[in-house]
Specification:
alpha+beta; 29% strand; Immunoglobulin-like; 4-stranded antiparallel beta sheet
Length: 158
């Protein structure tokens, strides 16, 4: 009897297909071990997924302006403090809806508290600070002191 040769098609190597197979095997093993279905994004609790907001901080002629992105938050859940040349923004994202008779496969909303503190680039008049909150953006305007308005803020380059 003649020995049969195995023929294989030659095609492009797709490294991600190997990763996908490995990922499916890992998910199956975790499901077998834990006794429930998992997805890769569900291993970390969403309640811990609140991140500090992105903040833009810049100077205008007479003011220091800070803008923070706080999507999905309400004004009542935000606190702004200024002390010792620092601006601090604190907040809490809440998940207060009550769900009955629903089986979620995944819930992508994050909740929890955060705090972000940044140093101010100039002396400001704290008692004249103003803040507004519109469409998920917190804007804080801090008038500079007369002395800070006069000083150029130039950095020496070594």
């Amino acid at each position: 009897m003649a020995k049969q040769e195995m023929k294989k098609e030659v095609g492009p190597w797709r490294p991600m297909s190997d990763l996908t197979a490995w990922q499916k095997d890992a998910e199956r093993m975790m499901e077998d071990f834990l006794g429930r279905k998992l997805s890769w994004g569900s291993w970390w609790p969403r309640a811990m997924d609140v991140r500090a907001p992105a903040i833009d901080l810049y100077e205008e002629k007479d003011e220091v302006v800070a803008k923070a992105e706080l999507p999905g938050m309400e004004k009542k859940d935000i606190e702004v403090n200024i002390s010792d040349h620092h601006l601090t923004i604190k907040g809490e994202k809440r998940k207060e809806e009550e769900t009955k008779d629903k089986s979620y496969y995944r819930s992508e909303r994050a909740y929890g508290s955060f705090s972000r503190s940044i140093e101010l680039p100039a002396e400001v008049e704290i008692d004249k600070a103003k803040a507004s909150f519109t469409n998920g953006v917190l804007e804080i305007r801090l008038p500079k002191t007369e002395e800070a308005k006069k000083k150029p803020t130039q950095v020496r380059i070594d």
